[in-house]
Amino acid sequence: MTLPPFPQTRLRRLRRTPALRAMVRESALSPADFIWPIFVMEGTDREEAVASMPGVVRRTVDRVGAAAREAWDLGIPAICIFPYTGMDARTEDCALAWSRDNIANRAIREIKDACPEIAVMTDIALDPYNINGHDGFVENGAIVNDRTVEALVKMALVQAECGADILGPSDMMDGRIGAIRGALEEAGHSHVTILSYTAKYASAFYGPFRDAVGASSALTGDKNTYQMDPANSDEAMRLVERDLSEGADMVMVKPGMPYLDIVGRVKREFGVPTFAYQVSGEYAMMQAAAQNGWLDGDKVMLESLMCFKRAGCDGVLTYFAPAAARLLNG
Ligand code: PBG
Q: Choosing from 112, 154, 223, 254, which is the catalytic residue?
């Protein structure tokens, strides 16, 4: 459409007062848009700061129930569990990954006991349990696909048995969504949803997360043979189509802020539930600048989250979830 010329058109008219701006605001942000990623660790009744993520802690499994309750009371509908694992928990066969009693699976049960209403999301990838920090098995220096998928299926089934509502395959192996969906159906978990890390890029913005989960020192090499090339956009569309066809209920773009063009394309081209992950490095940049007095922390937090909504996200995984929810709730 062509706008009538000035002065018939004065776009500032609708920006003059808060009331007028509220009337024409195109996107809205609420605590219901958030998925809160948390880090869990062994031990009892303890928390530990994550140095590279100011304001984020690792908490022992017995404390995750209270965290979930707090989140739910703030209006946050989902919480996502990431385990911190030391070198002693890591092996070449990654067997701890599908143990009912690893900390991630204990955390699922703890949350389901303490706050059954909240949706519990998991991470499916071998990296917390792998001696070399990779998301898949390594054979002769290569990350092997099909044998990894078999292990991911075992992880998925145990997580579903423990009560997970949303499974989050973050490994980027080919064929994992179909294999997991098939196994869930066969095992009677037909109600369990999959939020696929569909367009997950090989990104340097994951640095602080790898500190938080203890992967930084374990990881050898990079993840470029399975995570996406940051230069690619069409490939992300092929991945979305593939994951949907294999049985994903929801798709994710990761990282978030530098990849909102991908979010916009996914939402426009597919119209499916679309999420993005505002990752650790994005969080750390904003917190570091705020701590230095270079940015207004609260304002950039809310602005950045609103931008996810404007770009087309149905929701966003963010470490800011409780702080942002508190502000939004007044
Ligand atoms: C690992 C995983 C990563 C993140 C979530 N799951 C890191 C990686 O792929 O190395 C990153 C999250 C963040 O940076 O906040 N499967």
A: 254
Going from N- to C-terminal start, the domains of the chain cover 29-328
Query: In this structure, are strands 250-254 and 142-143 parallel, antiparallel, or unpaired?
Result: unpaired
Report residues whose beta carbon is within 6 angstroms of any ligand 1 atom. Answer: 123, 125, 127, 135, 170, 206, 209-210, 279-280
Q: Catalytic: 309? A: no
3-state SS, one letter per residue, for 225-291: CCCECCCCCHHHHHHHHHHHHHCCCEEEEECCHHHHHHHHHHHHHHCCCEEEEECHHHHHHHHHHHH
Closest ligand 1 atom to residue 133 Cα is 10
Residue 254 bears catalytic tag: yes
Residue 54 CA to ligand 1 center (angstroms) comes to 17
The residue-averaged pLDDT of 71-88 equals 96
Kindly report the pTM of this predicted structure: 0.97
Q: Is pLDDT above 90 for 42?
A: yes
Q: Domain 29-328 in CATH: superfamily?
A: Aldolase class I (3.20.20.70)
For the cut 90, the answer to whether the pLDDT of residue 322 exceeds it is yes
Q: Which atom of ligand 1 is nearest to the CA of 205?
A: 14
181-223 pLDDT, tens digit per residue, is 999 999 999 999 999 999 999 999 999 998 888 887 888 899 9
Q: Is 32 a residue whose pLDDT tops 90?
A: yes
* Cβ partners under 8 Å of residue 294, min gap 6: none
Residue among 170, 277, 287, 316 to mutate when testing ligand 1 (max atoms within 8 A of CB)? 170
- Encode pLDDT of 116-138 as tens digits: 999 999 999 999 999 999 999 99
Ligand 1 centre to CA of 210 (Å) is 7
Is residue 275 within 8 Å of 314, Cβ to Cβ? yes
